[in-house]
Amino acid sequence: MLAQKSTPTFELYFSVRSPFARRVRIALQRLLVPFEAHEISVFEPSAEFLKATPLGTVPALVVRNGGDHFTLADSATILEYLHDTQGGKVWPADLEVRSRVRAASTWAEGLMTNTVALFLETQRQASSQEYKFEYEENIRRTLRAIQGQPLNQLPWKISDFQLTQAGYDLIIALEYIEIRAPWMGLREHYADLYKFLETHRKRQDLAPTAPPST
Ligand SMILES: N[C@@H](CCC(=O)N[C@@H](CS)C(=O)NCC(=O)O)C(=O)O
């Protein structure tokens, strides 16, 4: 007989500085989805965490339902799951708008990926100038491309108060750059992006998950 399915419960593995985990934490809160949070250090992963998610990356969402469970890794995969199971609220319904918002979100996610790689490279004993330069160039190019767009409308915002998923991702990426790669000079070189960050970072749906500055 098939196991009886009921409403699933969720557990989220996250680390406090991970921008990828932050986009999922914010989405879960925004969608009013209750979850049990497990804070971990990616540098000292516990056996329990690695058992749940063998790749050892955060975020990882454990979905439990009627005795069954599975774990989703990767923030984009988790957002897609939340969109499909929690009322289609992560991405816009209109296909063209959705594609534009997803494209913008991918840019912001790319900023996160390159900044994580840049930070990790700076931490290595024999760090490569070549790799660092390449990550920095990717970040600069993408920041310039985003700054060339109006930020107060789609794909970043729906209205004065409503950010899209891409808007949340952009703020998360900018705050992460600020703490992990401050020499990129957001405030000095990307004034419009910095203004966007300053305008939104104190929001109630963003401020509580802000990464510690050290
Ligand atoms: N594409 C993945 C990236 C996840 C990722 O790289 N997370 C970092 C923390 S910011 C991590 O878990 N690193 C651990 C490691 O590389 O061992 C996602 O979107 O979730």
What would you note in describing this structure?
This protein starts with 8 loop residues before the first strand and ends in a 14-residue tail after the last helix. It has 214 residues and is α+β, with helices and mostly antiparallel strands. Strands 2-1-3-4 form a four-stranded mixed beta sheet, with helices on one face. Helix 1 (19-30) runs antiparallel to helix 6 (165-180) and helix 4 (95-123) runs parallel beside helix 6. The chain is globular and about 50 Å long. It has helices spanning 19-30, 47-52, 75-85, 95-123, 129-147, 165-180, 186-189, 191-200; strands spanning 9-14, 36-39, 60-65, 68-73. It has two domains: 9-85, Glutaredoxin (3-Layer(aba) Sandwich), CATH 3.40.30; 95-209, Up-down Bundle (Glutathione S-transferase Yfyf (Class Pi), Chain A, domain 2). It binds glutathione (GSH). Glutathione binds at residues 18, 20, 42, 56-59, 74-76, 116.
Structural class: alpha+beta
Strand content: 5-15%
State the major sheet. Answer: 4 strands, mixed
The total count of helices amounts to: 8
**What low-confidence regions span 5 or more consecutive residues with pLDDT below 50?**
none
List the helices and strands and how they pair.
Blueprint (H helix, E strand, L loop, with lengths): L8 E6 L4 H12 L5 E4 L7 H6 L7 E6 L2 E6 L1 H11 L9 H29 L5 H19 L17 H16 L5 H4 L1 H10 L14
Parallel strand pairs: 1-2
Antiparallel strand pairs: 1-3, 3-4
Helix pairs in contact: 1-3, 1-6, 4-5, 4-6, 6-8
The site of glutathione has 11 residues, from α3.
